[in-house]
Amino acid sequence: MTDADADRGGRLGLIVPSSNTTAEPEFRAFLPDGITVHGARMALESVTVDELDAMSDDAARAAELLGHADVDAVAYACTTGSLLHGPGFDIELEARLQEAAGVPAVATARSVVRALEALEAERIAVATPYTTELDDRERAFLEDAGVDVASIDGRGLAANTDIGALTPDDAARQVLEAVDGDDVDAVFVSCTNYRSLAVVDDLESRLGIPVITSNGATLWDACGAAGFKDAFDGPGTLFDHDREPL
């Protein structure tokens, strides 16, 4: 950020599915008053392959419109939506969004990989709200990125409003069941509509390993890309690590 940018505070552009009710509140809860969140939405009601595929067509236009607000960075906050088409799709998506917005852009799937790399986590357990089809795609994506997925536990939900109705306590219980004695370096709670950021500190205390969430990884990554990573302390071990420059 320039000095003028610092005087006006920071601005994050956040692109979310239309049915997502979690990403914006979680971002705002862990950002200082001087950094504001500005949202754009893409049509999605159910977290299915077909709807996620159709939704991605709206991403560049959403990023372009956020660029009009002079944001410092843009985040595409949808996990499966940014890994849907396999290896390289997340990187390609970030490049498209950056070109459209004219500022650095991150996408959740790639943010998660960056977070796991920063934590040097090679073997993980994953908790998701998804159906088996999406869990399989997520496992394949993570393993292609060099991560050993010891287990992946999904809830079988497709309606995004049902996912948004889950509580942080639901997430905590699922994480504890997903780990269940596995020898892992970290736990990943997937989905930007799954309320889980509030229980990260407690889970890390109980498990003794890092716990990252889709929104936590995206927030950490976007703030690093925007140049104000050090402006606040987010929850969990991840926020003790610097985000490497692109």
From TrEMBL:
Top-level taxon of the source organism: Archaea
Pfam families recorded: Amdase
GO molecular function: isomerase activity
Keyword vocabulary terms for this entry: Isomerase
Gene3D superfamilies, alphabetized: 3.40.50.12500
ATP-binding recorded as keyword: no
PANTHER family, per database record: BLR3294 PROTEIN
Designated name of the protein: Asp/Glu/hydantoin racemase
Species whose genome carries this gene: Natrinema pellirubrum (strain DSM 15624 / CIP 106293 / JCM 10476 / NCIMB 786 / 157)
